[in-house]
Amino acid sequence: MSYKFYYWPGIQGRGEFVRLALEQAGADYADVARGSGGVDAMRAFLDGESDGALPYAPPFLQAGDLVVAHAANILLFLGSRHDIAPQDEAGRLWAHQLQLTVTDFVQEIHDTHHPIANALYYEEQKDEAKRHTENFLSIRVPKFLTYFERAIARNPAKSGTLIGDAPTYPDLSLFQLVTGLRFAFPKAMARVEPGYPKVSAVHDRVAALPNIAAYLASDRRIPFNEHGVFRHYPELDA
């Protein structure tokens, strides 16, 4: 199966969770909006000019006549097809549950720099962002990381991953969370992350996977910047 993947071309954003899965799977895919005329093609889908289910927003994936939107939903679709998720129903649901928790965390990360409204620039809500981020770093980051640390510890396989004996797509997403938080909040993560050694170990294990390592070293990996979910504003990194 050859896939067409649609997401904004200049940012990692929510689409990066899908890119990591496609790369680890060794899937044949085109990152459509990064090619000539790709953004127009993506907008045509969003405007309902193409066949298939109507996406609300990127990311979405086209697999033949099938169109799947939302990062967690795409990963649910890809997981069992490419051996990056359990094959049994309970395992698939557990992987999806973990990914939905990642989705919640990503939204809270986004809200550190846009706590009032997406339509406002960061500079228009800096005071509110600072107050919001103080709470996020002191309460919400430890709460989420504690959850993932416990989930790794409770894996019956005792493999140091979230599910089973080998990394699955929630492990790839946990890698992205840690990498993004280190970029956005280097001071805070230097202080907080040592308390979550199992989470850090998952990050390191995923980074060393041959397909992921090759991707991270390639120009397919878009650098972090101040336009995506993970943004580094020094004034917020307390």
Please supply descriptive tags for the structure shown above.
4-stranded mixed β-sheet; 238 residues; Glutathione S-transferase Yfyf (Class Pi), Chain A, domain 2; 7% strand; globular; alpha+beta
Task: Describe, in short, the structure shown.
The chain is an alpha+beta fold and 238 residues long. It is built from nine helices and four strands.
Textual characterization of the structure:
- There is one protein chain.
- The protein has about 240 residues and is of the alpha+beta class.
- The chain is built from nine helices and four strands.
- A four-stranded mixed sheet has the order 2-1-3-4, with helices on both faces.
- Helix 1 packs across helix 6 (about 170-185), helix 1 crosses helix 9 (about 210-215) and helix 4 packs antiparallel against helix 5 (about 125-155).
- The N and C termini lie far apart (about 45 Å).
- Tally of DSSP helical segments: 9
Mean of the pLDDT scores?
Answer: 97
The count of DSSP E runs of length 2 or more, i.e. the number of strands, is 4
Query: What is the fold-level CATH name, i.e. the topology?
Result: Glutathione S-transferase Yfyf (Class Pi), Chain A, domain 2
CATH architecture: Up-down Bundle
Percentage beta strand: 5-15%
**Strand numbers in spatial order across the main sheet:** 2-1-3-4
How many structural domains are formed by the residues? 1
- Shape verdict: globular
Structural class: alpha+beta
Q: Which range best describes the helical content: under 10%, 10-25%, 25-40%, 40-55%, 55-70% or over 70%?
A: 40-55%
Poorly predicted runs of 5 or more residues: none
User: Secondary-structure element sequence?
Assistant: EHEHEEHHHHHHH
End-to-end distance: 46 Å
**Can you tell me the CATH class?**
Mainly Alpha
Radius of gyration equals 18 Å
The profile of the biggest β sheet is:
4 strands, mixed
